[in-house]
Amino acid sequence: MKQEKILVIGASGQIGVELTLALRKIYGAANVVASDLREQNALLEGTGPYVSMDVMNKEMLHVQVIRQNITQIYLLAAILSATGEKNPNLAWHLNMQGLLNVLDIAREEKLTKVYWPSSIAVFGPTSPRQMCPQKTIIEPTTVYGISKYAGEFWCNYYFMKFGVDVRSLRYPGLISYKSAPGGGTTDYAVEIYHEALKDGHYDCFLEKDTYLPMMYMPDAIRATIELMEAPSESIKTRTSYNLSGMSFSPEEIATEIKTHIPQFSISYQPDYRQAIANSWPQSIDDSVAREEWGWKPEYNLAGMTNDMLENLQTENR
Hints:
The protein is α/β, with parallel strands linked by helices. Helix content is 42%, strand content 15%. 49% of the residues are buried.
């Protein structure tokens, strides 16, 4: 069996850091090359090879794939929802061209697998609000959502036309204590824990009853690796899989934090991100992922809150 050699693009981002570390445990440090345009994240230093690289430079990327004998690519570089609305042209260009560069190289070099994340941002105000199904009305209203939905069909196209084994998950909002959020609409659910411990108060940019699909990072990393390790005959959805962990509102997460920090308080000052949140479903039906490759989340709001606060307190000591 051929030794897999993995390239993680966007390795210094919120998902990239933890995914790179998890992959290095499975495949061996030397076989997982981390890359980013940014400086290497401190958590990755000394854990394995790192190259500074721009996914938009296709020639440079192609050279690295050949030089490093890469067999799999995890493409995580993207401009997220809230940041994307400030610079729509850049978000579209990076999110689309980066993917096309990787898919093209994967086709030419006959890579074994490609991973590319989609998002619940593909859904829009006309999609069902509760238990939004895998196949439904999809009319995204953010440039991030538009780019992700278009990307899903590029993935499907390269699989159908060229046999590129590309796999994808529609991530909900992701929560992690290890790395900072990257400019998304669900970032409040990370910030709130930091502020609870630092100041005992959080000023939330969403209304208190804004329900959104969320997931704790350990579940997201496990889902990604389980999807990529599933036999190809199990992967029947070649656009992107719905993925669900839990759904909650800012008020509910604040209530859960108060069980640990009774003096914690929260106030609400909704900004432009409220309109983005209002356009997304409140909960996701991921039964297709459960049926096809056995997905099952482990963390709920209480378990996540306990783990987040415990780890952040340990870090701050």
